[in-house]
Amino acid sequence: MSYKSILAIVGVDQDARDLQVAVELCRELDAHLSVVVAQLAPPPPMGDAGIIATVWLEQSRAEQDRLEADVVRLNMLLSQTGISFSAEGMFGPMANAGDDLGERARYSDLTIIGAALKFDPDLKSRAVDGCLFNSARPILLMPETGTASLRPKTVMIAWDSSLEAARAVGAALDLIIQAETVHVVLVDPKAATRENGEEPGADIARYLARYSDAVSIDRIPSMGRPVAEVLQQHAADISAGVVVMGAYGHSRIRERIFGGATRSMIEGVAVPVFMVH
């Protein structure tokens, strides 16, 4: 699919770099940029009910005022970029944030999660999980440094033959078709019929060869290292412009308790990561 509507989720008073990256990506594709400035409502404190209500309402009102002022500021900044855009605020309880952001993401082709959201871990967690699980759309996780493009020269696909990886490849075909090189990367692949086939990576490479003549298969031993570390290092070694991968092949709860490639890639983005559940 072509990316003609891109959503960027930002926090209040967030660093301008993430917004500039989103603007440049939209300019590159002549796409519309929708910006949601999200602010989680402060949780009600414990204590005397009357005092609590007054203090909490005053705090909530102050947070909403900050949010509204930031939306005005961003509209003024975006009006000078020359791209098609819209910007709105979202204020609400933490429990509903993921669903609300996921619902907004359904009406865009791609959602950008900027690096600066790491300074608000609760918002970032709900933005990532909400958009992955409630939008049926891909997300693009941005690193703190470097450039980003939706026309990358080198695309790296983290392949494990899962449904999630297949969905990611399907959603990223526009990136893959125009790339100069496409690396299908398998970490510790097992040659088994119900896993990666007798020749791991051959099936997906054969499929992608109908779209691109620059597909290669990289089978990499982990040597005991975490999968995410292996993927990040290989992405750096081949100068990947974007990493395409499926998200949460295991449950979110299991990944949070025991760790996993998805959670590690989300927490340590080194190059742009195009992710789909």
UniProtKB/TrEMBL annotation:
Superkingdom of origin: Bacteria
Span of domain UspA: 153-277
Signal peptide bounds: none
InterPro entries found in the cross-reference section: Universal_stress_UspA, UspA
Family: Belongs to the universal stress protein A family.
Protein name: Universal stress protein
Source organism (scientific name): Pararhizobium antarcticum
